[in-house]
Amino acid sequence: MTPVCTVYVLPGLGFAGEAAAPIAAHLPERFDVVGIDLPGHGDAPDAADAGVAAVADAVVAAIAARATGGPWILCGHSMGGKIAAVVADRVLRGDAPLFGLAGLVLLAPSPTTREPMDEERRERMLAWVADGPISAQHAHDFVSENVAAPLDPDTETTAIAQVQRMSPLDWRRWLETGSRQDVRDGLDIADLPAVVLAGDADDDLGADAQPGLITDLLPRAEVIALSDTGHLLPYERPREVAAAIARLWARILAASAPVPSDWGRIIASERTDPETRGILSRRALADDVDAGPQALTPPQLTILRALAARLVPRAAADRFDLALRLDRDLAEGRGDGWRPPGLPTDAAAARAGLDALAAVWPDGTAAQDALIAQIIAGDGFDGSPWDADTTRRWFEDLRVDLAQAWVSHPASSARIAFDGFVTGVGMSDPGFSELRADRRDAWEPSSLGILSSTEDPS
């Protein structure tokens, strides 16, 4: 089976990309699990300098070298969790040459603020590398102190060997600088679907601490407490971690739309300017199915969803919520600047019109389509707050807003073969050279306009 989602795993301090293997063993074939060696870990060279930014630079480069343009989930453990938050922020801003980030899984993550580590313990760990690489005994101590119960002998041997390979320089850099850095200011990843797992026997970054550490950063995150579990979740609870990843992916599929991988590669490339890349990255995120309306009431949102279902033909895999997105636009005052004469603000008009429509909305799609056709024809409807012509203009404006909400999604751009957002700003050979009908430039996506209406990545 061809994988449909890549999971990039950023292990914790001391552990190499191979720490992802236990998680991969419990995930089905539709997931491609890729462990990333952080700087100074495994086979990766030391970071360019001390601090979180340099580690994030290396991670972005490592993912970009492997990225397919398809969807991916970022999974960060401990130190890797802090780095994952910074990388995610860069992707959603468009500052990284990446596209397709769909979700975030954090395993006992180090917070984006200063890590709450006991200073005596920090000094003891720093002493381990005072004379060179970590010894077998100290590596054993590190592993055993971070689990709730001893690992099986083979797993423990694997874990200890990874810690021994850790660069003394980057070990010191993390303990002295990275773990103490506060990088929270300016991070904007609140829209990202996320899950956080932590053990109840983890003293510093456990289940009791995590809600207070991530609530403001990731309000959509599901926090899962694992009993009889310490800090090394990839080795202690790989099955539970894999299950959480699979559930998160299912949630993402239920409220998003697939963007073809060749379109994802174009968006990630230098042909798409960073600001546009960031906008498209956020638009591609799954909707929060538990979120309530902000500009409308729940009944008004319900009738808007019913209207959207009749007015905007959707492919089976297009599962993002048009009505909820329009509600957000209304709440934030985003619009096209056009208001038909005789109508109040967009939000006020939507509330009044939807309330009136809800009172006369019929059962059955045939009757619903007939009512829609009646309004479009300029005949109004019983109970409308405006005359027939003003009602027609309001309904026209509403239809435009729904269409814009649909067409602005990058999956819709692929479906209608619109790649005009690709400007190539800063390139020596930007933009388009082939402008004839039914012709495309060599760099354009090969799937222009041919996305199957039945495509479903689940």
UniProtKB/TrEMBL annotation:
<dbReference type="Pfam" id="PF12697">
    <property type="entry name" value="Abhydrolase_6"/>
</dbReference>
<dbReference type="GO" id="GO:0016020">
    <property type="term" value="C:membrane"/>
</dbReference>
<dbReference type="InterPro" id="IPR000073">
    <property type="entry name" value="AB_hydrolase_1"/>
</dbReference>
<dbReference type="GO" id="GO:0016787">
    <property type="term" value="F:hydrolase activity"/>
</dbReference>
<protein>
    <recommendedName>
        <fullName>AB hydrolase-1 domain-containing protein</fullName>
    </recommendedName>
</protein>
<keyword id="KW-0378">Hydrolase</keyword>
<dbReference type="InterPro" id="IPR029058">
    <property type="entry name" value="AB_hydrolase_fold"/>
</dbReference>
<feature type="domain" description="AB hydrolase-1">
    <location>
        <begin position="9"/>
        <end position="244"/>
    </location>
</feature>
<dbReference type="InterPro" id="IPR050266">
    <property type="entry name" value="AB_hydrolase_sf"/>
</dbReference>
